[in-house]
Amino acid sequence: MKKISLVVASLLCALCIVPLFGCTSSINNKCAYEITCELIDGKTLVGSEKVTFFNGTENTVKELKFNLFPNAFRNGAKYSPISPQYISNAYPHGINFGSMEITEVRVEGDKVEFTIGGEDYNVLIVSLNREVFPDEKICVEIDFKTHLANVVARTGYNDSTINLANFYPILCAHNDDGFYECVYYANGDPFYSDVADYKVTLTTDSKYVVASSGQVVDCSEKENKRTCIYKQNSARSFAFVLSEKFKTITDSSTGVQINYYYYDDSTCDKSLEYAVKSIKLFEEKFGEYPYENYSVVQTEFVQGGMEFPALVMISDDLEEKAYGEVIVHETAHQWWQTTVGNNEIEYGFLDEGLAEYSVIIFYENYPEYGYSREYLVDSAYGTYKIFCTVYDKLYGNVDTSMLRSLGEYSSEYEYVNIAYIKGCIMFDTLRETVGEDKFYKGLKRYYSDFTFKNATPYDFAGVFERLGADTNGFFDSFYKGKVIL
């Protein structure tokens, strides 16, 4: 997610839901989702999903856990999904609430009991009717209702758009240690997921234009309702944005169908150009873009932008100078988070710092925009030093360690300066340390080695060690906050 701009900072931060039966075959032993849902009155999603879980670990599994992200917006939630400084902008019509209701769960066709648990009533726990051994699959069907809040956020309905991210029960990321339950902190992006194959059927009023993570494979209309089927393989999540106001322009010159959805952009061609140039450059510098489609979507969003597989949200409230930069940042996330994933709750700097540094790479390679690498790096240093001075005066010291959970940051201001700004500085310092050739070779190796996997900060460091760079001490000093900048 984009919360601060280096450029700005430098300038001074009821369709009948048909029951689904049988298991879905997934490619390369990934999990798979089949989701069927209808948007009712622009405020409620009535849906059913069939999830084919593949146990890729060495342990047996006796229960499945799903993140219920819409419950973060319910009345009485332990954690607010919106940072305090954004509350008034996020709820322009007054604070209201949303939630997710689970109505029934079936395992291999049989109705089963389930519980809602987690730290903040945010996790669906499904007891299985058998053990799932390594390399085995099991099918779970979940009927749900998602009640949208009137909130300018990832999930909610607004005056101009309806944002549908995290609208369905999402499998918790899973490894040999079990399932990781995500807490919806207001700071950063509180997500961690594995890739899966998606087939999503969405029914809406025909008046809406729909931007989607996936590719449309079929559409039909009946009685002012439109039903479309979308597919996307190897995606960490699936998202939509709907609007009656959308206009669309498209560019396929890169070999990727890049769609720009907008309703208030007098320089729409230039906005699309940022996305086109980003895809072209990042393919050259990092590796091939993983999907056939990419949607850049102007929407009501309380922060700068937000990334999802093959779709990014860009706030309609950005100043013109920041708008293009946010498109670049969110496009970079298609490499750093969408393809190479990481636990954004535990070390969000890994993808945010790389995405922010990718913005510098972009401007460095397109000098016509008027920003040099030196200028942007100096701006990052200046912003970071101001943060350190402020926190030292406020608290008597400043914690610059990077290996922290989102819940350990005192504010979004602190998180942004550590994850984005210090992360950006770290990657530029790495480039200076190992040299141009090894730096870009390392980024390409990191991308290819961890495509559709989840990486850790030490996985990233290991890539450069294997290339012959003695960087363990370098990364350790940044990660643990020992480096002096």
Task: Give structural notes.
The chain has 485 residues and is of the alpha+beta class. The chain has helices at 6-11, 87-90, 268-285, 320-332, 344-347, 349-365, 373-395, 412-434, 436-449, 457-466, 472-479, and strands at residues 31-40, 44-54, 61-67, 99-107, 110-111, 114-117, 123-132, 137-147, 155-157, 162-164, 170-171, 173-175, 178-180, 196-205, 209-212, 215-222, 225-235, 240-243, 247-251, 257-262, 293-299, 305-308, 311-315, 341-342, 454-455. The longest helix has 23 residues, at 373-395. The protein is globular, with a radius of gyration of 22 Å.
Summary tags:
8-stranded mixed β-sheet; 5-stranded mixed β-sheet; 485 residues; 29% helix; single chain; 30% strand; 11 helices
